[in-house]
Design a protein that fits this description.
Growth Hormone, Chain: A; globular
């Protein structure tokens, strides 16, 4: 429902800028909104699938007799699939089309959910979680790609942002679903139901995909121009002229084919590559996914009961959602660097507070200590949503020239998921030694991020892409 409201806001703002419009225009806008919401469900399942394991880590550790090292590996297994999925999905998507690939990803989500719920041993569980990771990695590429290709240019940014919004919403829904499942008192199969719940939205995603059109850009690339005309006539264009849009797509495809001849790993692209790698590494070295995947475990370390820990996790997810909406609304007003500065300071204060609390209370937390940890994590997730969460993909998309932008974003995406897997794998091992050590390390990394933002990160707000290239020494 929140996604629908976001889409309605987009359409209302578009209608206000165009006047009342006619019935055909409104029907096109409704078709565009429906297709966007359905495709963005890939993002919602992305968020749900990555976060749902949060409520099961303690149980998995017991039933599979896992050490902290192998618990971390178990959590990271889906993330390893995510890396593969994000890297490998491009060519198959170009071959079979965006919509058909979304069908495939929906099947991956469904089979992963059911298989994880019915897993008969640790190895089968890893296999099904890896399959879900393939779905997550693929959806992180295909869902926004599809939405971008069906959207008129003036609405593209806001409609693609629906996917990012749905990822955060999916995380919140996973936390809330886990809380509800625990409240059902299902006994030893509780953890299985936590994973199995995802099968329902995955099945809905699959069947809703029958109601959306193929990407007009993919149709033109495949020579199916008449079908592309029908789709553009249904969804609308910027000018209302379908033939102009077809010509623009053809020109874009020609430019992309020419750009593939441009080598990527060259000295002149060294600065944007280093900036992309740095911001993606810092994104994960904040410990954000340690919180997403292990918050229930962390809150229990801080003295909370299972039900209270899950409730606190829902509060963290809700804060993430609200502040993400705020950040998306102001990023073009205050700029990328300003948001990163505020976020970095919030990271340092919150992570430093958590580290101090764990050093102070150790394993003997009082109610006061537990509340300090909760408050600090609320500040932490707000700092992430306002800073790194809102900035990372916008910034990476701006610092690379058009001819190598796709490969630059792929580099940032690979770095992000690789570091996510590494942090998620090692966190239980470090936290077992000392929760204070883990969060002190993350705080130290955020001090380095603050220095990077102040002295190295360029501001890209309102700067033409050609000027950004000149400032980075790209001819």
């Amino acid at each position: 429902m929140l996604s629908l409201n976001s889409g309605v806001t987009v359409l209302r703002s578009a209608s206000a800028s165009e006047g009342t419009g006619d019935g055909n225009t409104m029907r096109a806008r409704i078709s565009l909104l429906q297709s966007t919401i359905v495709a963005a469900l890939g993002g919602l399942l992305f968020g749900f699938d990555t976060a749902v394991i949060n409520g099961t880590t303690d149980t998995l550790e017991v039933i599979f007799s896992l050490s902290e090292f192998w618990l971390g590996f178990t959590v990271a297994s889906a993330l390893l699939g995510t890396i593969v999925g994000a890297v490998a999905v491009g060519k198959p998507t170009d071959l079979v089309g965006r919509r058909l690939m979304l069908f495939v990803l929906a099947v991956f989500y469904f089979v992963s959910a059911v298989g994880s719920a019915l897993a008969w041993d640790w190895y089968s569980f890893l296999a099904f979680r890896f399959l879900g990771g393939l779905g997550v990695g693929g959806a992180s590429v295909v869902s926004p790609m599809y939405i971008a290709e069906i959207s008129p240019a003036r609405l593209r940014g806001r409609l693609v942002a629906v996917t990012q919004f749905n990822i955060v919403l999916g995380i919140l829904l996973a936390f809330f679903s886990n809380y509800l499942v625990v409240g059902m008192n299902l006994g030893d199969v509780t953890w299985r139901w936590m994973f199995g719940v995802e099968a329902f939205p995955a099945a809905a995603f699959f069947f809703l995909l029958f109601g959306i059109p193929r990407s007009p850009r993919w149709l033109v690339a495949r020579g199916r121009v008449d079908e592309a005309r029908q789709v553009l006539g249904t969804l609308g264009t910027d000018t209302g002229n379908v033939e102009q849009e077809i010509d623009a797509i053809r020109h874009s495809l020609t430019a992309e084919r020419d750009s593939l001849r441009e080598p990527f790993f060259r000295k002149k692209y060294a600065k944007p590559m280093m900036l992309a790698v740095a911001i993606a590494m810092f994104n994960q070295l904040s410990g954000i996914n340690a919180l997403i995947y292990y918050s229930k475990h962390i809150f229990q370390m801080a003295g909370a009961s299972e039900n209270l820990a899950l409730m606190q996790t829902v509060a963290v997810g809700g804060t993430n959602l609200v502040v993400t909406m705020l950040a998306l609304a102001v990023i073009d007003h205050f700029g990328r660097k300003a948001l990163m500065l505020v976020g970095s300071i919030g990271y340092i204060v919150s992570l430093g507070t958590v580290a101090w609390t764990f050093y102070t209370y150790g394993t003997d937390f009082t109610a006061t200590g537990g509340m300090i940890v909760l408050g600090a994590f609320m500040l932490f997730i707000a700092s992430h949503a306002f800073g790194q969460g809102a900035v990372i993909w916008v910034f990476i998309s701006e610092i690379f020239p058009n001819r190598v932008r796709a490969r630059g974003q792929a580099l940032g995406c690979f770095t992000h998921w690789f570091m996510c897997a590494l942090v998620s794998w090692t966190f239980p091992v470090i936290a077992k030694v000392s929760g204070g050590h883990a969060f002190a390390f993350f705080a130290a990394m955020m001090v380095l991020q603050l220095l990077w933002v102040v002295f190295i990160m360029p501001e890209t707000k309102g700067v033409p892409l050609e000027e950004i290239q000149r400032r980075l020494g790209i001819e």
